[in-house]
Amino acid sequence: MSSTLLVYLHGFRSSPRSSKAVMTGEAVKTLSTAAHTFDWYCPQLLASPKESMAMVTACIDQSKTDRIVVIGSSLGGFYANYLAEKYSCKAVALNPAVRAARELAPHVGMMTSYDSNEPFDFRPEYIEELKSLQVERISDPKRYFLIAAKGDELLDWREMSDFYQGAHQLILEGSDHGIAEYADHLPRVLEFISP
C-alpha cells in the first residue's frame, strides 16, 4: 500500500474555504483506494511567507506518506514552485504569481481576508521573505502542470506560460483569475496528480 500527501495552498487574502480548495479536497477524497491513500493538507496560510513555508514544510517533514504533491493557486502557486523544487515533487500551479514579490509590493499595509473580512498586516519585510523563496527556473518541467487563464485580470498568463516552459500546460481562453470553470478542469488535475 502506498500513500500521497496532497498539499493545497490558497492565494493571497484567501483561505482553505475557497471554492477551488473545497472542490479539490472533495475530489481528492474520492481518489483514495485500498492500494493508494491520499492525505489532504490545506492550511490557513499566515501573512508571513517565511512562517507559512515553515509551517508547511514542518507538516511535510513529519508526514509518513510515500510521495508529496502540491497544488497552489495564485500566491499559493508561487509557494508550490518553492516546495516542488525543495522536495522534487509534482506541482499544479493555478494562475500562479511567478514573481510574487513584485506582484504584492503594492499591497503592503493593512489588508482584509476575502471571505472573513478579518484584517491582517502585510508588512514590508514580507516582500523580502518572498524574494528569498523565489524560484528562478524550474529544474524539471515534467513535474509541473500549469493552468493559466488568458482572461486573468491580475496576472499575465504569458509570463506564466514562459516560466513553465516544457511543463504540461492548459491555457484557457478567457476565464478569470479565480478560474470560474475550475470544476471542468479538475479531472485533468486529478489525472496529473494520480500515482
UniProtKB/TrEMBL annotation:
Question: Can you tell me where the transmembrane regions are?
Answer: none
Coiled-coil intervals, chain numbering: none
In terms of Gene3D superfamilies, this protein maps to: alpha/beta hydrolase
- Any Pfam family the entry gives: UPF0227
Q: What is this protein called?
A: Esterase
This chain's source organism reads: Polynucleobacter campilacus
